[in-house]
Structures are given as structure tokens and as C-alpha cells.
Amino acid sequence: VMTQTPLSSPVTLGQPASISCKSSQSLVHSSGNTYLSWLQQRPGQPPRLLIYKISYRFSGVPDRFSGSGAGTNFTLKISRVEPEDVGVYYCMQSTQFPDTFGQGTKLEIK
Amino acid sequence: EVQLVESGGALVQPGESLRLSCAASGFTFSDYWMHWVRQVPGKGLVWVSRMNTDGSHITYADSVKGRFTVSRDNAKNTQYLQMNSLRVEDTALYYCVRGAQQWVGSDYWGQGALVTVSS
User: Fold this and answer.
1) Which residues pair with B106 in a beta bridge?
2) Letter string b/e over residues A10-38, b meaning 16 or more CB atoms within 10 A of that residue's CB
């Protein structure tokens, strides 16, 4: 089970934001890698991959997004929130079958 | 540019069938695993199925096993989701998702196809 906190995060433009994701089991794969990803879903849009393997930014993702963590605890950070960052953020694990998602964190502007 | 375009979404009655298609472009389709993920509007994401590159290895979520069938036509760069015995609780946006090659997981998502099951 993937548990995200907070479920809602009002943030001031230009300020940082942080979202936590905790797994009920270790996400370390037998390969030694940890397959934890972060997705962004803007209003009315499909999910978009931001981060994979805890901390690797996907193609085209701004460097204000960063991921960290290990084992069962992970964090997505946005260094300075911009208007286009509004939406719902999901963590997703692919280490254990089947892929499972956190319940989502809604990022909104104060 | 990677593109995944779903089609076939509709309003159907409980017990009926529907087939979704996902047309892929911008990459060598036959080299990638493919997934389906669904989302009840306003709710979270739920994995539905995954299929390997030649369609010989397929797994399903327990909630759809025995009712849904996925397949692919690599010559047409398309994957399909055949949904039978549809239930009200199958109402959702169905996303076609490409499996990642460099890590275990997925990368690109389609826009989604809306399936509504209602009497």
C-alpha cells in the first residue's frame, strides 16, 4: 500500500513544495534498484511521468522537480512552485506486482 | 514524438461488451511492453493489465480477470482491450501506457478513453 501525505497542499507561487510517499513494504527490487516513480496529472490531462527510480528526472521535466528517498520512504520536492504545477501528484511503485499508486496529492496555489 | 491514442470509449449497459484500441506512433511498438491503467473520474489510478512485446505473456488485475482480454497487433502498432460482461464499477477513463525499457515501470500515457457502464 502506497500512502501519500499531505492529500492537499496549498502553496504560494515561488515557494517550495514537498510530498511524501510511504510504502507498506520495501521497494528495493531483487536487482538492487528501487522502482518508485512520480506522476503529475494536470487538470483535464492524463498523468505524465516526472521522476523514475526515485530520483531520475524523465525527459523534458524541469529541474525544479527532484525526488529522493529509499526503502519505504520517498519524497517529491518542487523547489519553486509555478502556476503550471497545479494538479494532482501520484507516487507509483513497480517493484512489486502489480504496479500500485498512492492516492494522490492535490497541489493548489494559495 | 511518442503518441498513444485511445479510441472506442462509449456508454454501454451492464453486461455488454466494448473494445478499446490504442494506436501507437513515434517509436518501435513491437519493442515495448504495454499496459492499461484506469481512473474513475476524480479518483485515483488503478493498474488493469500488462502485455509483453509479442503478446505471449499477459497479466490482469483480479478485478477484471476472466472478463477483459488484451491483445496487440504489432503490424498495426495497436493494442486492444476487449471488455466483456461490463459492470457499473468498470466505469472509468482507460489509459494506454507504454512500458519503460530502461527500468521496471512505465513512461508515456495516452489521453484516455472514457467507458461508462450504466443502465
Assistant:
1) B99
2) ebeeeeebebbbbbeeebebeeeebbbbb
Please tell me if residue A72 touches chain B, with a CB cutoff of 8 Å: no
Contacts with B100 from chain A: Cβ below 8 Å: 52
Q: Minimal CA–CA distance to A21: which of A83, A95, A89, A78?
A: A89
B58 grid coordinates = 499477459
Nearest-neighbour CA in chain A from B112: distance (Å): 7
Output phi, psi for B7, to 5 deg. Answer: -150, 165
Amino acid of residue B30? S
For residues A11 and A107, the answer to whether their CB atoms sit within 8 Å is yes
Closest chain B residue to the Cα of A34, Cα to Cα: B104
Average pLDDT for consecutive 10-residue bins of chain A (110 residues)? 96 97 97 97 98 97 98 98 98 96 97
Chain A residue with minimum CA distance to B96: A46
Count of other CB atoms within 10 angstroms of residue B108: 22
Q: In the prediction, which pLDDT does B102 show?
A: 87
Q: Which of A67, A63, A64 is nearest to A92 (CA)?
A: A67
- For B102-111, the pLDDT digits (tens) are 889 999 999 9
